[in-house]
Amino acid sequence: MTIPIEGETIQIHSYKHNGxxxxxxxxxxxxxxxxxxxxxxxxxxxxxESDGRTWLTREPSICYFHAEHWFNIICMLxxxxxxxxxxxSSPYVFDNNAIKYIDYDLxxxxxxxMSYTLLDEDEYEQHKKEMGYPEVIDKxxxxxxxxxxxxxxxxxxxxxxxxxxxxxxxxxxxxxMHSNEK
Length: 182
Prior knowledge:
By secondary structure, the protein is an alpha+beta fold. The chain has helices at 121-131, 135-154, 163-181; strands at residues 9-15, 21-33, 37-42, 46-49, 54-56, 61-66, 71-78, 81-89, 93-95, 98-110, 116-119. The protein is globular, with a radius of gyration of 16 Å. Belongs to the Ntdp family.
């Protein structure tokens, strides 16, 4: 498997279980790429929905993906603090200059005070029936919701106090380097 290179710009592709594209983020800067972890950043990037609608992200975000966990975490840097949007998803793959994963509907929104809410349980149940999620996927996802809640409570991974500062600084450094190259 190829690994994204720090400073490169790649896309992020979200699919649904049936193989259809769900959403594409046009430009995300690679901050770290290894065999298992991808950390990227984007700001005011174009997002294209499956129905062709487009929108721009509003704030800078640090994105965390892992090749062994069934979730990814988007850290949105807002004026009143960091909000986290956690997607229950397949582990990512890096293919054809894009991070790719299957979105499994369930989401956890985490607020700056580390309180959180599980979202889209109705959508998950509906898609589970419509797309025939296997029982094994259902069990994996439920186990990973528990794991993710543990990370939130223990302030692990992207929820660790210094995570945002470290990766925001890396993003600003890379952004500056690339603007000087132009």
